């Protein structure tokens, strides 16, 4: 899965540029997927494939540290509902859509927290009739079903709004994702090619299925577009232990493309579904402070079990109560890993990330997408919403991702959101939480720690503009002339 390559006339723009003796273009020689030499442009010679960078800027390969791979890949087949202004419009979009081959109508991306009126089962039934309809919230923590779909899935006792939340919603997503392997793998390959075109060289797969076999199958069939670390969930922990899996290990039979990731624990809900566990009530919902999905004692026990077995943890914690409970559990178990999302963090908890060695795996685009929701629903909260600069100042390690399909899997949109804290013509949202481009590029590399230097893995991205000086529009749409994975060219414009 590696190759030899001579990359000519490129300028180092990301991490490690400070180690370069000059800003002038250099040649980079790659042997067996590793950077073997770096020299002034035109000075290296080797009988290997050559790629002329023509003065483009080169950075370490980009990673998305939080992707629901199959759901992201299948999202292209689902009705986009992000523009629906209310439940009637979302229901009408579903009513006018063609069903999938299995007869189901599936849409995704609605944000009912922004609607002036809530969804109802009666409204969806009136619009869609007896065709089973499944509409997935943008945050994936709730799903709006009509009566035909509720009967089909065995959830006839749903509330009058037709919404299934949290674990019930996850179960529906698992069922929708469990289509035939040929369809899924074709969708994953297409999505992987699109990701490579944006400079992606790796991702952490948070799908809820057992993914070891799926990734072996895909690599056996020739999938080689990006590296993968796959996670697993509590009901799969004992299987992982029995199979001797340890976080960071190569998954046998995948040619080094796939590695074992952490145990994923969903400790609370989400902002959009109003279930993230917060210190204060959601605006307009007295008494609703969200909920912890996992009791703190059980969370500690799960972390101790995984840690004793050589398995890291990735704990989903969005509300500040959940973040505090997760940090306390990491400290108690002496566990390693990440807190995923960390969208509301108490001031007193910032320093704990660095002290415990726990990385903050965050999605900067959510701050741009959720700013109106957060301003409304979290207006009474006292903790910091969507912190970035505050975490960096406290010494925390950042890892960036998209949570695709919740946000687009485009690392440049992620980077631009972190640097500029706006996605439109409005002023930056909480500009004090912006981070410099160097921090954003580092957080977008593998585990937030990749660099360009001798002996480093040759996962590289060529940029047509200098990320250091690009404005928001240029950065978010960064043209990518080429993506290189272990010396192999996976994308060439």
The count of strands amounts to 23
Termini separation (Å)?
A: 21 Å
Q: List segments where confidence is low: pLDDT < 50 over at least 5 consecutive residues.
A: none
Helix content percent band:
25-40%
Global outline: globular
Strand percentage: 15-25%
Discrete helix count: 17
- What class do helices, strands and sheet pairing give? alpha/beta
Mean pLDDT: 96
Using only CA atoms, what is the Rg?
A: 23 Å
User: How does the major sheet shape up?
Assistant: 8 strands, mixed
Describe the structure.
This protein is an alpha/beta fold and 493 residues long. Helix content is 30%, strand content 22%. Helix 9 (296-308) crosses helix 10.
Give a summary of the structure in a few sentences:
This protein is an alpha/beta fold and 493 residues long. It has helices at 69-74, 87-95, 121-128, 147-153, 167-177, 181-196, 212-220, 237-242, 296-308, 320-333, 350-356, 364-369, 371-377, 389-393, 411-420, 437-443, 472-476; strands at residues 5-12, 26-31, 34-40, 50-52, 57-60, 62-67, 79-80, 105-110, 133-137, 142-145, 163-165, 200-205, 227-232, 258-266, 313-317, 337-341, 344-345, 359-362, 384-385, 398-400, 460-463, 482-485, 488-492.
């Amino acid at each position: 899965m590696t190759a030899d390559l001579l990359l000519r006339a490129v300028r180092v723009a990301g991490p490690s540029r400070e180690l370069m003796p000059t800003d002038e273009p250099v040649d980079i020689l790659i042997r067996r997927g590793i950077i073997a030499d770096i020299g002034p442009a035109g000075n290296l010679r080797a009988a290997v494939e050559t790629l002329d960078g023509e003065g483009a800027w080169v950075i370490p390969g980009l990673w998305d540290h939080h992707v629901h791979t199959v759901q992201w890949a299948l999202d292209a087949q689902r009705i986009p509902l992000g523009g629906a202004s209310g439940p009637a419009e979302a229901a009408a979009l579903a009513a006018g859509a063609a069903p999938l081959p299995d007869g189901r109508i599936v849409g995704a991306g609605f944000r009912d927290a922004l609607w002036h009126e809530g969804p109802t089962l009666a409204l969806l039934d009136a619009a869609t009739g007896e065709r089973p309809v499944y509409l997935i919230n943008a945050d994936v923590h709730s799903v709006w079903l009509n009566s035909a779909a509720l009967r089909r899935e065995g959830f006839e006792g749903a509330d009058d709004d037709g919404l299934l939340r949290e674990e019930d919603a996850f179960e529906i997503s698992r069922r929708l994702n469990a289509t035939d392997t040929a369809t899924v793998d074709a969708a994953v390959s297409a999505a992987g090619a699109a990701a490579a075109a944006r400079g992606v060289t790796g991702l952490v797969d948070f799908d809820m299925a057992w993914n070891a076999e799926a990734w072996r199958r895909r690599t056996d069939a020739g999938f080689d577009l990006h590296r993968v670390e796959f996670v697993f969930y509590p009901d799969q922990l004992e299987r992982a232990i029995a199979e001797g899996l340890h976080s960071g290990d190569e998954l046998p039979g995948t040619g080094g493309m796939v590695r074992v990731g952490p145990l994923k624990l969903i400790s609370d809900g989400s902002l959009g579904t109003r279930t993230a566990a917060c210190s204060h009530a959601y605006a307009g919902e007295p008494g609703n402070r969200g909920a912890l999905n996992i009791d703190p004692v059980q969370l500690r026990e799960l972390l101790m079990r995984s840690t004793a077995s050589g398995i890291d943890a990735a704990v989903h914690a969005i509300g500040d109560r959940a973040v505090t409970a997760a940090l306390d559990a990491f400290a108690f178990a002496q566990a390693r890993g990440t807190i995923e999302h960390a969208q509301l963090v108490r001031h007193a908890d910032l320093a704990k990330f660095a002290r415990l060695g726990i990385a903050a795996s965050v999605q900067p685009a959510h701050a741009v997408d959720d700013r109106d929701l957060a301003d409304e629903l979290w207006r009474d909260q006292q903790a910091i919403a969507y912190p970035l600069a505050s975490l960096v100042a406290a010494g925390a390690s950042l890892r960036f991702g998209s949570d695709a399909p919740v946000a687009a899997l485009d690392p440049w949109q992620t980077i631009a959101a972190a640097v500029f804290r706006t996605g439109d013509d409005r002023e930056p949202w909480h500009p004090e939480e912006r981070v410099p481009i160097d921090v954003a590029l580092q957080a977008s590399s593998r585990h937030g720690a990749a660099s360009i230097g001798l002996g480093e893995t040759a996962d590289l991205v060529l940029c047509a503009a200098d990320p250091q000086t690009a404005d928001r529009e240029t950065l978010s749409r960064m043209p990518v002339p080429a993506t290189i994975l272990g010396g192999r060219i996976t994308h060439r414009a």
